[in-house]
C-alpha cells in the first residue's frame, strides 16, 4: 500500500523501469507483480486526485521506445489487407474492382507470409533505412537488424531509388535450430521475429537468422513498369529476395481461385504462411482504386477456413483399444482445423511413429482425414528429442504387453481401458447409436463400478445415472430410454457392435446375410467361414476363436432382454442426401481417395455414375476437375436440375 508521495514517486519509477525491461525482452518481474504495483499506484491516485504525476503510467504510456521513429510516405501509409474467406468473398472483391475500373484487369496470386511487415529504402542503389510498419504512418528504424540479413543486398546493381516492402520471417529450419540452441523454447516463428526486433542489439538478430521476402516495389526512379508481376520481376533482377516462383498471373478471379486451391494442395514452403494475397496486376488500377482507412482496395488476403494447420506435439501416449491393442496417441497444442479444435491425434500404430519419425517437440501439420478424423500429415520441423520408446506395460492395468505382429497388446481382457473402449464402440453411431452415451459418461459408469460387463448397461437406473457428474434427471431418463431402445438390433448391427477383431461393418453385414441367425454363426467353423467371399484363413480363425466370448456376451445380453433380429426383418435405412441419387465424382478430393468417397456414397444409399448426363443428380467437383465439371455446369445452365457440390460441401453431406 502506497501511503506517501515519496513511495508514490518510487513506484512510478519502478513501473517505468519494468516496462522498459519488458520491451527489451528481458522482463524484471511477472505480469502479476507489475499489475499489483500498478493497482497500488492507481489506488493512491484515487485518494490523492490533485497529486497525480504527469509521468504516471496510469496517465500515459511511459515513453519507452528507444528506437528512432520513421515517418512513412503519407501517400502510401503501411496499411492492411482486407480478408476474404470464401469464393463468394472473392467474387464480391472482383465486382467491386470492376465497378471502378473499366479497363480489363488481371490478378496476381502469391503467398501471404506470416511474419512482420518491413519497409526498406534504397537511395541511389544503397540500402539507407529499414523501418517497421508501426501504426502505419510512423514506424521504428530497424536498419541495423535488417542489415544482418545476408540475402538482402546492401547495394543494388543499378543506382535506383525505391522503397520496397516485404515481410521479415524465420524459416522452419532456422526456427528449429534456434530452439535447439535455446534453454527456453520460442513458441512460434512470427513471435520470435517480433521479439527479436524489439531488442536494441542487432547482434541478437544476427544470431536468429531472419529472412525477408519483398512483395511490393514503390520506385522513385528506374524503368516504367505497369504491372505488379513485372515489378516483382524487376525487383528480382535487382537481386532483391522476392517470391517470384510463387507469384502467378490469372486472367480472371475464377482462375485465381483455382490457383489458390493449387497453392493449398502444395507442400509447405518451409516457412509459415497465412493464406494467399490476390492483387490487381495493373499498377495504374492501384492508384485509381486507392484505399480505405484500413486497407488497400486493390488487393485482398484470402484465408480459407483451414483444412490443415501447424501445431506442436507435446506428448505421445499409448491408448488401449477394445481388443487390448495399444495405439500411440499424439497430444498436440490445440489448433483449429475447419472450425474443430484438434488436441489428440491417433498415430495408428507404433510403426507409424517410426515411419513419420514423430516425437514430442515436433512441429507437425495436422488435417482432418475425410474431414473428420484428425491426422498428422507430416513433420515440418523435427525436434531433436529421441523417438519415444515402445511401452512395455499397459498404461491402465500395468499388465506386460505382448508383441502381436506389428501391434502391441494388453493381454488382460478384464482391463478397464478395454471395457471402456468396447462400450464406446458399442454405443457409437455406426453400432447401436446410443444417443448421449459418450466416452465421458462411459468412463464414469466404469469407474464407479456401475458397469462391469456390457449387459450391465441395461440395468443402470435413472437414479444411478443422476449420481454421475453433470447428469440431470431429464438427460438420465433420456439415456435409459436410448439404451432400452437398442434391445432389438439387426444381426449385422449387433455383430459390428461387438467389435470383434477383423469384423468391421462390411464383414458383419456379410456374416449376417450368410448366417441369418446368431446361433447359426455360433455353430460355424473356420472351413465354412473361408467359403465366404473376402474371408481368408486368418480372419476365419480369428472369428472362430472369438465365438465362445461372443456366445457368453450374447447370453448375458439375452438375459437382460436383448432380442436380435435376422437381417430380413431389418428396418429401412434412414434417408440421406444421397438416397437413390446418382453421384458422379470428378477431380481430386483434398482428404478422401476416390475409392473411399464412392464407398461412402454407396453406404449412404447413393449410386455412383461414371459419366455426367441428364440422369445424374449430383456432381462432386474436386481439384483439377475437367470436362465432367464443365458438362455439369452446361447442363445446369440449360435448366437440368443437376446439383454441383464442391469438395467441402460434399464432405459436409457425408457427416450429416
Ligand atoms: S501486399 C496492404 N503481399 O500482410 C499493403 N502483404 O494483412 C499491401 N503480407 O501488412 C500488402 N504477405 O505485412 C502483401 N504477399 C504479400 C504479403 C503481405 C504478407 C502482410 C503484410 C501486410 C499484411 C496485411
Q: Overview of this structure, please?
A:
By secondary structure, the protein is an alpha+beta fold. It folds into six domains: 5-60, Orthogonal Bundle (Helix Hairpins); 80-300, DNA ligase/mRNA capping enzyme (D-amino Acid Aminotransferase, Chain A, domain 1), CATH 3.30.470; 308-406, OB fold (Dihydrolipoamide Acetyltransferase, E2P) (Beta Barrel); 416-484, 5' to 3' exonuclease, C-terminal subdomain (DNA polymerase, domain 1, Orthogonal Bundle), CATH 1.10.150; 491-559, DNA polymerase, domain 1; 582-654, Rossmann fold. Helix content is 36%, strand content 21%. It has 23 helices and 22 strands. Strands 12, 13, 14, 15, 16, 17 and 18 form a seven-stranded antiparallel beta sheet that branches. Strands 2-11-10-3-9 form a five-stranded mixed beta sheet. Helix 1 packs antiparallel against helix 2 (31-47), helix 12 (416-427) packs across helix 13 and helix 16 (491-497) packs across helix 17. The chain is globular, with a radius of gyration of 32 Å. The two termini are 60 Å apart. The chain binds 2-(butylsulfanyl)adenosine (IVH). Residues 79-81, 110, 112-113, 117, 167, 215-216, 277, 296, 299, 301 line the site of 2-(butylsulfanyl)adenosine. 2-(butylsulfanyl)adenosine (IVH) binds at residues 79-81, 110, 112-113, 117, 167, 215-216, 277, 296, 299, 301.
Amino acid at each position: 500500500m502506497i501511503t506517501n508521495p515519496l513511495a508514490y514517486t518510487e513506484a512510478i519509477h519502478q513501473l517505468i523501469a519494468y516496462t522498459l525491461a519488458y520491451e527489451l525482452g528481458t522482463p524484471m518481474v511477472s505480469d502479476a507483480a507489475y499489475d499489483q504495483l500498478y493497482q497500488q499506484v492507481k489506488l493512491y491516485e484515487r485518494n490523492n486526485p490533485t497529486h497525480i504525476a504527469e509521468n504516471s503510467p496510469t496517465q500515459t504510456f511511459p515513453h519507452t521506445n528507444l528506437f528512432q521513429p520513421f515517418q512513412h510516405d503519407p501517400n502510401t501509409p503501411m496499411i492492411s489487407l482486407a480478408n476474404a474467406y470464401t469464393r463468394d468473398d472473392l467474387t464480391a472483391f472482383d465486382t467491386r474492382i470492376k465497378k471502378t475500373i473499366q479497363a480489363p484487369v488481371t490478378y496476381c496470386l502469391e503467398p501471404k507470409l506470416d511474419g512482420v511487415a518491413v519497409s526498406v529504402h534504397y537511395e541511389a542503389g544503397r540500402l539507407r533505412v529499414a523501418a517497421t510498419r508501426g501504426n502505419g504512418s510512423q514506424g521504428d528504424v530497424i536498419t541495423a537488424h535488417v542489415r544482418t540479413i545476408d540475402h538482402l543486398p546492401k547495394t543494388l546493381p543499378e543506382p535506383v531509388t525505391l522503397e520496397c516492402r516485404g515481410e521479415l520471417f524465420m524459416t522452419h529450419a532456422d526456427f528449429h535450430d534456434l530452439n535447439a540452441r535455446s534453454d527456453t523454447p520460442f513458441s512460434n516463428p512470427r513471435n520470435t521475429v517480433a521479439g527479436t526486433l524489439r531488442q536494441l542489439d542487432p547482434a541478437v538478430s544476427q544470431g536468429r537468422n531472419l529472412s525477408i521476402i519483398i512483395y511490393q516495389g514503390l520506385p522513385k526512379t528506374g524503368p516504367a513498369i505497369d504491372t505488379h508481376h513485372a515489378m516483382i520481376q524487376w525487383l528480382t533482377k535487382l537481386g532483391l529476395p522476392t517470391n517470384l516462383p510463387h507469384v502467378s498471373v490469372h486472367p480472371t478471379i475464377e482462375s485465381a481461385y483455382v490457383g489458390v486451391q493449387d497453392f493449398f494442395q502444395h507442400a509447405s514452403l518451409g516457412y509459415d504462411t497465412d493464406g494467399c494475397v490476390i492483387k490487381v496486376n495493373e499498377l495504374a488500377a492501384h492508384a485509381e482504386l486507392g484505399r480505405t482507412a484500413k486497407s488497400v482496395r486493390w488487393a485482398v488476403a484470402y484465408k480459407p477456413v483451414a483444412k490443415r494447420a501447424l501445431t506442436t506435439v507435446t506428448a505421445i501416449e499409448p491408448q488401449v483399444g477394445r481388443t487390448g491393442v495399444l495405439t500411440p496417441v499424439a497430444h498436440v497444442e490445440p489448433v483449429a482445423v475447419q472450425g474443430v479444435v484438434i488436441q489428440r491425434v491417433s498415430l495408428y500404430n507404433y510403426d507409424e511413429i517410426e515411419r513419420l519419425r514423430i516425437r514430442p517437440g515436433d512441429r507437425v501439420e495436422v488435417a482432418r482425414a475425410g474431414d473428420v478424423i484428425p491426422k498428422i500429415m507430416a513433420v515440418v520441423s523435427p525436434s531433436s528429442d529421441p523417438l519415444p520408446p515402445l511401452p512395455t506395460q499397459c498404461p491402465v492395468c500395468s499388465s506386460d504387453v505382448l508383441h502381436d505382429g506389428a501391434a502391441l497388446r494388453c493381454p488382460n481382457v478384464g482391463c478397464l481401458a478395454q471395457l471402456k473402449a468396447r462400450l464406446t464402440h458399442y454405443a457409437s453411431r455406426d453400432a447401436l447409436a446410443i444417443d448421449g452415451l459418450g466416452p465421458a459418461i462411459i468412463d464414469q459408469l466404469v469407474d464407479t463400478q456401475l458397469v462391469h460387463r456390457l449387459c450391465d448397461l441395461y440395468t443402470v437406473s435413472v437414479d444411478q445415472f443422476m449420481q454421475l457428474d453433470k447428469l440431470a434427471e431429464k438427460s438420465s431418463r433420456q439415456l435409459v430410454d436410448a439404451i432400452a431402445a437398442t434391445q432389438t438390433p439387426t444381426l449385422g448391427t449387433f455383430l459390428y457392435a461387438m467389435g470383434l477383431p477383423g469384423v468391421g461393418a462390411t464383414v458383419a453385414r456379410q456374416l449376417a446375410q450368410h448366417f441369418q441367425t446368431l446361433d447359426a454363426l455360433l455353430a460355424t467353423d473356420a472351413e465354412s467361414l473361408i467359403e465366404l467371399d473376402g474371408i481368408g484363413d486368418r480372419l476365419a480363425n480369428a472369428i472362430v476363436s472369438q465365438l465362445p466370448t461372443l456366445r457368453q456376451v450374447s447370453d448375458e445380453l439375452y438375459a437382460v432382454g436383448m432380442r436380435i433380429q435376422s437381417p430380413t426383418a431389418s428396418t429401412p435405412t434412414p434417408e440421406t442426401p444421397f438416397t437413390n441419387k446418382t453421384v458422379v465424382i470428378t477431380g481430386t478430393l483434398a482428404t478422401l481417395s476416390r475409392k473411399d468417397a464412392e464407398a461412402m456414397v454407396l453406404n449412404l444409399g447413393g449410386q455412383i455414375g461414371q459419366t455426367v448426363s441428364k440422369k445424374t443428380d449430383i456432381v462432386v467437383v474436386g481439384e483439377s476437375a475437367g470436362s465432367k465439371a464443365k458438362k455439369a455446369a452446361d447442363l445446369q445452365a440449360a435448366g437440368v436440375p443437376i446439383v454441383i457440390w464442391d469438395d467441402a460441401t460434399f464432405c459436409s453431406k457425408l457427416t450429416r
